[in-house]
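From the shared-data thread, chain only:
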Amino acid sequence: MRDQRLDKLASVLVGYSAGVKPGDLCRLTGESVGLPLLEAIYEQVLKAGGHPFVSVLSDAMEEAFYRVAGEAQLQYVSPISKFVVDTIDVSIGIWADENTKSMSNVDPRKQATAAQARKPISRRFLERAAEGKLRWVGTQFPTQASAQDAEMSLREYEDFVFHGGLLHLPDPVAAWKKISERQQRLVDVLDKAREIHVVGKGTDLRLAVQGRKWINCCGHENFPDGEVFTGPIEDAVNGTIRYSFPAVHHGRECHDIELTFKAGKVVAARASKGEEFLLAMLEQDAGAKILGEFAIGTNFAIQQYTKNTLFDEKIGGTCHAALGAAYPETGGKNDSGLHWDMVCDLRQPGCRIEMDGKTILEAGHFVDPSWPNPQ
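Structure, as tokens:
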């Protein structure tokens, strides 16, 4: 019998997050181990009057592609993929790794080549989303591999995943709407900002954001959610940021990443582990050395690092700054085949975020009690 929490999650994803309407063409994607959740979502899309179709992959297929594919195959862009992104109304993605380390030994140059080839598809996806023509959401299906990364049993990890999405509450949608209201108060203030200044352990970073729009993330694109973000002005990021947690991208881990920016571009980069991979990602195109996103985590139901960016970037009292592609809805212009979120923990004494010289977050708590804070 299927875990009833999966049906509850599917209902929230289809009805609230993606807002599926009668006649919507809905792409459902995920790994084979996540079939129980895909099946639950499929049923909910049908109940909503949508037209679902499913694309299922596996860790082994992805690993085989990078191991076997030649240069022409790495650079190939399927016309079917182009058609899908131009045509669908809704995309619901499930992350469900059976082996989170399956890509550890892949040549990073091959990953960069494939990312560059897919850049037009990624760009088109973001453009249609910004125009309101494509609604999307991604979520996590609890697996043994992800539980192991988080140093939890599968039962503990399942509870963590569902709790992070507020699915333990009688009415999760009402709870997310309340979070949206609190986050909107913060967004209304940030939309007036000229400069953001982040201070933390090994971090002193200034970002110009004047004229850029801040986005209230309350369960419509990522689930669970809980962040506010913008696209910094591309040539006006200066200083150094040291990321607190290992940064994971395409199954590869980089530890103790430290980046120094001058006039918007990375001028120095290092990592205690995975530095070769980090440098390869930075060199894949001109936009890879530029920040496409700066965000503040606001989900105080998530407090534990799990090596899963979906959750880690939402940890209440943290920030994350992503190298690469900007989201067009923020006014960000950076274009890249890369989008790599990296998290900086600001929950310790002395850590803070300032807006135009005034502290808005200190030691992981917002100074205004009407903004998101531990409840």
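The chain is about 30% helix and 25% strand.
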